[in-house]
Amino acid sequence: MRHTLSVLVENKPGVLTRITSMFARRSYNIESLAVGPTERHDVSRITLRVDCEGSPLEQIEKQMHKLVNVLRVSELAPGESIERELVLMKVAAPPAKRAELMALGEVFNARVVDLGPDSIVFELTGAPEDVDSFEELVRPHGLQELVRTGRIGLGRALKPNRNRPTQRVLA
Amino acid sequence: MRMNGADAILRSLEAEGVDVAFGLPGGAILPLYDAFARGTTVRHVLARHEQGAGHMAEGYARASGCVGVAIATSGPGATNLVTPIADAWMDSTPLVCITGQVRSSLIGSDAFQECDITGITIPIVKHSWLVQDVEELPHVIKAAFHVARTGRCGPVLVDVPRDIQEAATEFSYPDQVSLPGWKPPRRGHERQILAAADALAAAERPILYVGGGVLNADATEELRALAEAARLPVVTTLMAKSAFPETHELHAGWPGMHGPKWSNWALNKADLIVAVGARFDDRVTGKLSAFAPGARVVHLDVDAAEISKIRHADVPVVGPLKPVLAELTRVLGERARPGATEPWLRQIADWREQFPLRYRREGEMLKPQLVLETLQELTAGRDDVVWTTGVGQHQMWAMQYLRCDRPRTFITSGGLGTMGYGLPAAVGAKAARPDATVVCVDGDGCFQMTQQELATSVLEDLPIVVVIVNNGYLGMVRQWQDMFFEERFSQINLTHSVPDYAQLARAYGAVGITVDDESDLESALSEALSCGRTAVVDARVDPREHCFPMIPAGAAALDLVEFEDDAEEVPA
Q1: Prior bond to B25 cis, omega within 30?
Q2: B475-513 residue pLDDT tens
């Protein structure tokens, strides 16, 4: 079972190390991780995709919350949040294949950001599932290089009515 | 006031009320030691090895309830503190470690005695700071003490580059710390406490399973009030030994790998376990799936992450134990059913009668258990004795045979199982309680790991008594090799006589006594306890004695192995 956690941390040296070290030590798996600034200069946001096979999400959240630099840990629950990922991919594109690939890109709203004699570089921002689909469709054409940022996310602006208790309160 | 960073550290320690620090100087911490030389109210105890300094600070913290302070230089000095830091982490001992670091301009250059101690210790500290600006120093020290002693206690580390110690600053000690991410719980949830009371009131066979958290929370009085008000039996883990009076009729012994059968039965056959500052360690539970199968669990802990980490908690209560226990006692009072637990208490008392600790008394050699029994007899009723131990068979016998009635009188390495802990911890405990008779029950293997601190004990006027339960072997390893490795003894023979511990003690300026006969035991121990000097009793005991009962690793607690009178003699 995979979950996305949004973690607000103090913007201080070593914070990321403390978090990843705790994950390593407790054998929690990180699938993707993205770190960046927030609206506050002294606070950073870490978006973590974790694989909770074997260790319940609650334990991971609590252990993270014990770290002194961690301000808030919340789960980005599906349906209540927006998740995005950015991918750059270099695809083999001999002239004969170019049109087909570009049409494919259009379907996904992928932009062509570079074009060479034998390859195209696409940029796509989208829900991680869309990025996955595009990657799978492009792969048979000869995927030469790929980089994904790892997902980032935010809670929705308008939260749906919840018929469940408010989120777990962490110590 | 204008001063340098090193002075600012000492003024900060003074402001925190630190009366003693344990350490050893070296290059990168020289400015701080220069500040010591220029004057401070903080007593410095000079250890012979930084590991010793760290365990002393732990012993001090355990005996006093205050934060222990250890100081070391950069590089090897700092890495020598790693074992005590890990120990303090596992046992939640409040500890502030201050290490020197190479100059800021040299960090990252592989300079002489440089090591990334903040990096090395990340998994074993609550938090650490590498001070990068002298102006931060007082704030960092304040925060360090605050983090070490609030919430679940534990170690922190402050790494101070040499140039920061030398830099000038205008000193003022802050009143408050700004730690927006550190918010330990301040009180328990009322509804959860009510649920805990309901569970207790409904239980037929409830038991309080008490861990070291009760001592850290200074909640022993509240624990006793709860146990007495509701007539609840109390088992105390190794870390909680002395948290509840062991001569009290409600004390139901010690659960776990070498706990008596009746204690393990009481815990495992309960229908309600109220865990109080305990963490369901594998040494207590044995095979988890078979642990206390019929019990519901109420878990009181200041650390939310302990709830349902190992064993599911039916009723979790997160909060500081002192007010939580007091509130639980109060609300339980309205619900209690007088006399409800009496049949259960009688059952436990029956088991206690039925399954006493046993060992083979006869034989030519002195029995290790007898050493502990005699120590107990000689000190029974005294309220000024503090025990420390190393790790191994002697530690388990100490747990089984010594009776501690007052809090913080049994100091041991539980979670990490650090051999060599006992002697320096005793020195630290003596610094905390100069009035007390501090006795380290040690093994011969443990003693040899930190024996150099005898010099500290003698020269710093911190007299302690060390009783070496000397079986000439790494005894617990021997027991495991005997029981689980078909008696293939491998690399465990230390010999009874090398070194000659009494002579070694005398070489350090301590009293040294060798005893290998039952008839001399009492007088030897009495002499050591009353001589007022650092004393080492080398009690040469039977190496064939195993520590029983024992729950084999991975076995169910109810499947413990007991002492058998007719067990085959294993040749020495």
Answers
A1: no
A2: 999 999 999 999 999 999 999 999 999 999 999 999 999
CATH superfamily of B2-170: Thiamin diphosphate (ThDP)-binding fold, Pyr/PP domains (3.40.50.970)
On whether the A2-75 domain is CATH 3.30.1490.20, my answer is no
Mark yes or no for CB contact B181/A21 under 8 Å.
no
Closest CA–CA distance from residue B127 to any residue of chain A (Å): 6
CA distance B13 to B16: 5
Answer whether 0.90 is exceeded by the pTM: yes
| CATH code of the region B368-547 | 3.40.50.970
Which uninterrupted H or E stretch holds A120? strand A119-126
User: pLDDT tens-digit profile of B403-420?
Assistant: 999 999 999 999 999 999
Tell me the ipTM for this assembly. 0.91
pLDDT tens column, B180-223: 999 999 999 999 999 999 999 999 999 999 999 999 999 999 99
Contacts of A69 in chain B (CB under 8 A): 127, 181
Ranges of CATH 3.40.50.1220 domains, chain B? 190-354
pLDDT digits (tens, 9 = 90+) for A1-16: 889 999 999 999 999 9
When CB atoms are compared, the residue of B181, B184, B309 closest to A71 is B181
Q: Using CA atoms, how far apart are residues B111 and B48, in angstroms rounded to an integer?
A: 25
Q: How confident is the model at residue A78 (pLDDT cuts 50, 70, 90)?
A: confident
CATH of the domain spanning A81-153: 3.30.70.1150
Considering only the top CATH level, what class is B190-354? alpha beta
Q: CA B153, CA B94: separation in Å to the nearest integer?
A: 5
Q: What is the mean pLDDT of chain B?
A: 97
Chain A residues with beta carbon closer than 8 angstroms to that of B308: 56, 58-59
Please answer yes or no on whether B303 and A66 come within 8 Å at the CB atom: yes
Q: How far is A170 from chain B (nearest CA, A)?
A: 8
The distance of B332 to chain A (nearest Cα, Å) reads 25
**Cα angle value B371/B372/B373 (rounded, 5°):** 95
Mutation target vs A (from B182, B191, B280, B321; most A CBs, 10 A cutoff): B182
The whole-angstrom separation of Cα B82 and Cα B122 is 11
Rg of chain A (C-alpha set): 19
Per the CB < 8 Å rule, is B126 touching A21? Answer: no
